[in-house]
């Protein structure tokens, strides 16, 4: 397998995921080349990431009308390893790879039903203040949740 | 051509449009059957309708943060007459067909470069109050703009 | 509830559905008005319809590379009854309402977790020959499956 | 501006683009946070890249039914520098950054009407054989076109 900058040891990396969200490829997500269009994995990443944040207890806060912080994607990438087709059932694994002051680095791995990895990716998520437009440091409460999650995933 | 419930006389109907918005079919909008996916014309309708509302001077008001009314789609439909393919250049014609107290009936016609009609449609748009969730009657100012538009399109 | 042309008796109509497919509203499917964008229900309809066709045993045939027939949408419509928001879990009910020579009329009903109906719709699906571009009559085998389905749904 | 791995000297990089494709942000492309959803720039990249390939004279070959090669995205990334809003008019600049045996590295830069850079990105595109599923080396004819393009863009 070719080198991917954010993966050192593929086997260890694969084993570091625990949480996943299942999706099934929609017909409207294919393109005229007969496979999943390259723009769609980012919608899957977002969906799986939000399910993961829900699981951690984050997401609700961010979607309250009164919230003055929102999570924004600062950058992201996807490496496509295998073509994906209509109606395939994928597991989108998600983990927090690293935590900064107001950001985190999220990793994704999409695997097919036979276990083959179809595509992988990563995003930097920043907690942004809607008042200043700048990064808003994680609260102690969130830091605790995040660190617990990272420990679970890195130390298991 | 088969009967379409909202079109009485196809030739007169075609002639009743003036405003159009041009779009070009994106690769990501095709599907594995090799043509434009059936869900996409509604995004084209929305884009063309908003350009039309901009042209009439409506849209800005509705997208101001302080606005307490928004336009919502109450119902819509599309009749697909000809398959559409990647990179085709379409004209999406839009007109106000009828005006109610807080609603209007919008018609659409998409034509290809050779003039063939590819799909047609209609939407009922309601001006909704974000405070009550109910229809908000058109102001006199808006009514005047709408009626001028309808007259132009019906009487020309 | 306002009149919807393809629904005579709302209570009887609601009771006539059996099959449903569950979906959860994605973040990327909302728009800046804070609710589900009006173009998305048609992607849900397509997804639920295909799951229904799978269930009946149709879909596989149509997506084989050697198939010379594909299902195309000839027309469709949606009536939006209640705003839908991010992360709502919807049941998209699907049924065959009527069968023609090479077409069928499909009905949809989307209900929220509290049972409220959020939007309803219908599509005319035509089995098209990819060789002639024209409608291809249902085979006896398909007719039998369709009629069984319609009977089940109408007579139960 | 923060460091972006594929940009050494931002000013020189900005000046290295010539070709651009204009797009206008659709309403259906916003999300409930009120800005352009993070998944959409990849659709813009694809649209601009294809317009660029058209301009170079590539794309037609790849979308012919008889073609045994298609361009696939092997990996891609986006760095979001400024929030983008509904109805903004963007220029999506595209260039070939580097050429391999059967692949190329494409760079993108999206700028707003005031000249501010909103997001940047890159994709590795591979010419894939649909028969073998493997990379298909560029023909001499394509190599010549690509190299001319790279020279134009790097030497100007």
Structure overview:
Four copies of one chain form a homotetramer. Chain A has four helices and five strands. Chain A is of the alpha+beta class and about 160 residues long. Chain A has one domain: Thiol Ester Dehydrase, Chain A (Roll), CATH 3.10.129.10. A five-stranded antiparallel beta sheet of chain A has the order 1-3-4-5-2. The longest helix of chain A has 16 residues, at about 40-55. The radius of gyration of chain A is 16 Å and the shape is globular. The relative contact order of chain A is 0.20. The model of chain A has no long low-confidence stretch (mean pLDDT about 90). Chains in contact: A-B, A-C, A-D, B-C, B-D, C-D. Strand 2 of chain A pairs antiparallel with strand 2 of chain D.
Q: Topology, please?
A:
The structure is a homotetramer of 156-residue chains.
Chain A: H1 10-15, E1 19-24, H2 41-56, H3 59-63, E2 69-80, E3 89-99, E4 103-111, E5 117-129, H4 140-155
Antiparallel strand pairs in A: 1-3, 2-5, 3-4, 4-5
Instruction: Please tell me the CATH architecture of chain A by its name.
Output: Roll
Taking pLDDT < 50 over at least 5 consecutive residues as the criterion, the unreliable ranges of chain A are none
Strand content of chain A: 25-35%
Instruction: Give the SSE order of chain A as H and E letters.
Output: HEHHEEEEH
What spatial order of strands do you see in the largest sheet of chain A?
Answer: 1-3-4-5-2
Work out the helicity level of chain A.
25-40%
* Total strands of chain A: 5
How many domains would you count in the coordinates of chain A?
1
Query: What is the terminal separation of chain A in angstroms?
Result: 25 Å
Average pLDDT of chain A works out at: 92
Radius of gyration of chain A: 16 Å
CATH level-four homologous superfamily name of chain A = Hotdog Thioesterase
- What oligomerization state is this entry in? homotetramer
The interface involving the most residues is between: A-D, 24 and 24 residues
Q: Could you say what the CATH topology of chain A is called?
A: Thiol Ester Dehydrase, Chain A
Class by alpha and beta content of chain A: alpha+beta
Main β-sheet of chain A, in a few words?
Answer: 5 strands, antiparallel
Question: Treating each run of at least 4 consecutive H or I residues as one helix, how many helices of chain A?
Answer: 4
Shape annotation of chain A:
globular
